[in-house]
Amino acid sequence: MLLACDYTEDGKEKVELLTAPWAAPGTVIQLEGNEYTGEKPAKIDIDHFCKVEYRVSNKCFTIAGIKATAAGKPVTTNKADNCEVC
C-alpha cells in the first residue's frame, strides 16, 4: 500500500510519500504503545480502511490520533505537516 500527504512549498502544491526505509517489506504498522501480535489479514476492505482518520501531525504519521510506528520507530515526514494522508 502506498500512502502520501500533500503540502505547499514556495506556493506550489507537492506530495510526500510516507516511507519507512529501515523496515522490511511487509512490516506491520503498529500504533504506538500497542503491539499487534495477530495474523496479518490477506487483504484490507476499503470501506473499513476509510472509516479511520489518517493524518500527519507534528511531522508524525498518526492513525486515529495515535502515532504510527514501523519496526519500532515512528513514521515521520520531512516536509508535510498538519495534513490528511491518503
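^ that was protein a. below is b, sequence first then the C-alpha cells
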Amino acid sequence: MSSLNRGVTKIEVTLKWDPSPLGAPPHDLDLVAATYTSKDPSDKPAYLVHFGSRSPDGTITLDRESQTGQGFGADEEMTLELDRLAVAYHRVVVGVVIQQRHGRRTFADIVGPELRVLEGYTELAKHDFTGVPDATGATVAQFTRDASGAWQFRTAVRGFDTDPQSFGALMGTA
C-alpha cells in the first residue's frame, strides 16, 4: 500500500479547560482514542487509549493528563502516529469524556473547554463543545485509512450522554 498521497501522519490532540471555582469539586476531562480493525461502525474497538494506558505498539500515547484543568497550556495531550499504525487498523476515533465522580457534569458545566487537532503546526480542527452542551462525552475526530493506505481526517463532533465506561464502546458507532 503505497501512494503519492501521504494523508495525515502524526497528529497531536490537545485539550484544556478552566479549573472549577474555588471550593467546588474538580472537573476531570479525559481524552480517549479507540482503534478499529473493521470499517463496520457497529464493531467494538480493538483497544482504547486513555489515562493510564497507551496502544500496545506505542503509536498512540497520552502524553499529559490532568484531573483538574489547572496549569498553563494544554491540560491533556495525545499523540497519534498513524503512519506507524499496523495495516490491520482502518479507523481511529478520538473523543473526550467527563469523569462523573462528583455528580453528573456536562460540557455546559465546564468553563473554557478547548480541543485542538494538529498535524505539526497546522490546525486541522478546533472545538469548544458548544454544539453538545448536554453531553457527558463527545467524539471529536475520526481518522480512516483509504485504499492507498493513507490516513484521512474528518472532524466528527457528536455528543453522548453516558458514563465514561460505556463511552469507549459507543464512540465508534454510526
